[in-house]
Amino acid sequence: MSWRTEYEAAMLARDNQEQANKEVYDAYTQLADRTAILGNRSSDRAEAAKGDAFDQTGSPLSGPADYPASNVRQNLLEAQRSRSELQARLTAVSAELDKLKLKSKTDMQRIHDLSREKTSLTLKLRDRDEELRGKAKLLTDVHDENLSLTIELNMAEAQNQRLQTENKELVDRWMAQKSQEADAMNTRSKFS
Questions:
Q1: Does the pTM of the predicted model rise above 0.70?
Q2: CA neighbor of 73 nearest in space, from 28, 37, 27
Q3: Which residue, 36, 27, 135, 23, is CA-closest to 79?
Q4: Do residues 29 and 85 touch, judged by C-beta distance below 8 A?
């Protein structure tokens, strides 16, 4: 196994563990936020109730021991507020990222589908072009055959016309000959 595969497996395991404990983390964060807010309110009330406290000598009680606790509480409250804001931003950014990932996945699927459709249409177009070329050649062949048959028909009609004329002439000559023979026979029979 390569180091990348191990690294990816470790990152995946860490992500799965964090996702499994996410509810615990969120619950703890909310509890800490509430505690800090309540702690800040109670310290503000206590300081307001004390008013200006003085020691036995009459000097104000605002020593270093009181200031750091108040300052730490204030810093904790600001940190918790900042963390809540960052968490809200993180949630919004994560939601936007998920939407964009989904849109990207949908767009990739659409691109894949359109590419497949384009390939299919290209093949159909190529087949159609071949079919049209074949039909055009067939039409040219039919036209040539039709022209050849028309020429043959014209030649046959011309020959038919010539044969009819020749036949008519032969029939006319034969009829004339038979007429002459009949006339000759009639003439002979009158004198006999």
A1: no
A2: 37
A3: 36
A4: no
Residue closest to 94 by CA, chosen among 17, 15, 29, 12 = 15
Taking the C-alpha atoms of residue 76 and residue 80, their distance in angstroms, rounded to an integer, is: 6
E strands, 45-93, in order: none
Q: Structure tokens of 122?
A: 């290209």
- φ/ψ region of 38 (left if φ > 0, alpha if ψ in -120 to 50, else beta) reads alpha
Q: Is the pLDDT of residue 34 over 50?
A: yes
pLDDT at 54: 45
Q: How far apart are CA 128 and CA 108, in angstroms?
A: 30
Residues for the chain: how many in total? 192
* CB 70 within 8 Å of CB 43: yes
Of 26, 25, 47, 44, the closest CA to residue 36 belongs to: 44
Measured over the CA atoms of residue 55, residue 58, residue 62 and residue 64, the dihedral's sign is negative
Query: What distance in Å separates the CA atoms of residue 81 and residue 30, rounded to the nearest whole number?
Result: 11
CB 80 within 8 A of CB 32: yes
b/e map 3-14, b = 16+ CB within 10 Å: eeeeeeeeeeee
Which two tokens mark 150?
């028309």
Q: In angstroms, rounded to a whole number, what is the distance separating the alpha carbons of residues 17 and 13?
A: 6
